[in-house]
Specification:
Elements lengths: L2 H18 L3 H23 L5 H14 L10 H21 L29 H4 L2 H12 L4 H8 L3 H25 L1
Helix pairs in contact: 1-2, 2-3, 3-4, 4-8, 6-7, 6-8, 7-8
Length: 184
Amino acid sequence: MTDAFADDERRWSDLMAAAHRGDSRLYEQLLRELAEAIERYIRSRFGALSFTEDCVQECLLAIHAGRHTYDPRRAFRPWFFTIVRNKTVDLLRRSYAGEAVAPAVLSEALVDTAEGPDEQFSAGDVLAQLQPKFRNALTLTKICGYTLAEAAERSGISESAMKSRVSRAVRAAELLLAEERNLE
């Protein structure tokens, strides 16, 4: 574990312990720090999703609702990132299923948010690990905000083929995130 990870681990664990004791000021500080970490995590793995802010908020709500499940005798980061991964996958699934998500921001390219070689989440970019046809499907539909019909037209395939690619891409992303979870 790098020094930065160890520092975060100690600080976040201490802040959560203070929150368990009822210190609302330190709990707010913890949530602010976690929001930044969640956004970096999502952007590093998926790029500039149009619903990143929604995902950050859902993760924070899940952390708040499940804060009683955190055991201070255990590491904080695995508990925290398990919630973040699960909520991110849930939101991707809901987005794919057509549920309401924030309006898409049209963008032709992924936004590079890495802060340099020491960026703690730079390794393991989920999109980069997907096959190009699946990466393209997710980029067009989830990042650029195109409908299935528009994405299919841009890719020169049928709408049903695009729907299938998006579904398979989401499943592949889920598997990559599960593998990551197992490596921790």
